[in-house]
Design goal:
- With 344 residues, the protein is an alpha+beta fold.
- It has a domain at 4-231.
- The chain is built from ten helices and 14 strands.
- The mean pLDDT is 93.
- It holds the Pfam family DUF6925.
């Protein structure tokens, strides 16, 4: 079995892997391009930075992380998402839950030395496991932020929200396991209404209202809270949510992580589905699981077998998988599916 520290360090230098930290409705993402200039590169210390963003995992906390590998359904029936949630128990995961704009002082822990004199402000989103912050040295923006400290950014009369959107300060997601920093513009009017490629943030008020730590479609054990996520290369779409040719190597690599870190019953269910398909069992003779995550795992396995069959199997197997999908993964059924490219 692979060691988690080795897995994290290996993916940190993999340009196809992405990372995120935050909570349900507020996420900061770190992505890098092949050959992109690095401003900080210390994988052994879990640090990576480019001109567009940065990530640092707390080396002292890494050994306490409890990883949970999972896959989720896409509303598009030919694809799916996957990730490894980096979790801590509830008590260890708790953030500060500030609910008003709060000045925190110079960001002395910034990944890049040049950013350590800039001033950090908690946006006051009240997230359970993340302090979602902005960082700036812009005197005009600082004046507005300080004048409106102690107020909610959701107050329509608070001018700080508009000033932030106009000035595009750095965004910094702080958790007990580390931080993600985003230096690029905020997705909105200045970016054509979409998030820019590479590191970016999503702030979705409609999801924040749910006050959840994560999507209900993510099988996180009740005693754990996800603080960040490793997003290994996806075999069917790129980091911006565009379709790609099926990458069997990326698929196989994640299946190794899934077998090691997924909820234990789900890989066993997948094995049972594959064995039934191998015996040419018809779908009416297979009993679907009653658990929502089990049903999702069944659907995900069939989607993956469909993509594999398109590439490697004959028409007989393709037809069998199609019959199973007609019963268990109807194209019209988008329940238990998450948007796999929000804001793009």
């Amino acid at each position: 079995m692979a060691d988690l520290r080795d897995i994290l360090q290996t993916h940190l230098v993999d340009e196809k892997a992405g990372w995120s930290m935050g909570s349900f409705g507020a996420i900061a993402e770190f992505h890098q391009d092949k050959g992109e200039y690095l401003e900080a590169d210390a994988p052994a210390l879990f640090v990576r930075a480019t001109r567009r963003g940065a990530i640092r995992l707390n080396a002292a906390t890494v050994d306490r992380i409890e990883p949970v590998a999972y896959e989720t359904l896409s509303p598009k029936p030919h694809r799916w998402s996957h990730a490894v949630a980096l979790c801590l128990p509830h008590r260890e995961a708790a953030g500060n839950r500030r609910d008003t704009l709060t000045e925190l002082g110079p960001d002395e822990d910034a990944v890049r030395p040049a950013d350590r004199r800039a001033i950090l402000f908690d946006m006051g989103l009240g997230l359970p496991q993340c302090d979602f912050c902005i960082r700036t040295a812009d005197p005009d923006l600082l004046a507005i932020l300080r004048e409106n400290a102690g107020r909610s950014l959701f107050d329509p009369a608070n001018p700080a929200g508009g000033a932030i959107l106009k000035a595009h300060p750095h965004r910094v997601a702080l958790t007990r396991i580390g931080r993600v920093e985003v230096f690029q513009k905020i997705g909105g009017p200045d970016t054509g209404g979409v998030s820019p490629p590479g590191p970016h943030t999503h702030l979705l008020p409609q999801l924040l209202k749910a006050k959840r730590t994560h999507s209900a479609n993510t099988p996180i054990p009740d005693h754990l809270v996800p603080l960040g996520y490793l997003h290994p290369a996806n075999p069917v779409m790129d980091g911006m949510g565009a379709d790609t040719d099926f990458d069997i190597d990326a698929h196989a690599r994640f299946q190794g992580l899934y077998d090691q870190f997924a909820r234990p019953d789900l890989p066993l269910l997948r094995k049972a589905v594959l064995e039934a398909l191998g015996r040419k069992v018809e779908p009416d003779d297979f009993i679907a699981p009653s658990d929502r995550f089990g049903r999702a795992a069944l659907r995900l396995t069939l989607r993956q077998q469909h993509r594999l069959a398109e590439k490697f199997s004959g028409s007989t197997y393709c037809e069998l998988v199609a019959r199973w999908r007609a019963v268990f993964d109807k194209a019209s059924d988008t329940t238990a599916a998450d948007d796999d490219a929000p804001g793009h």
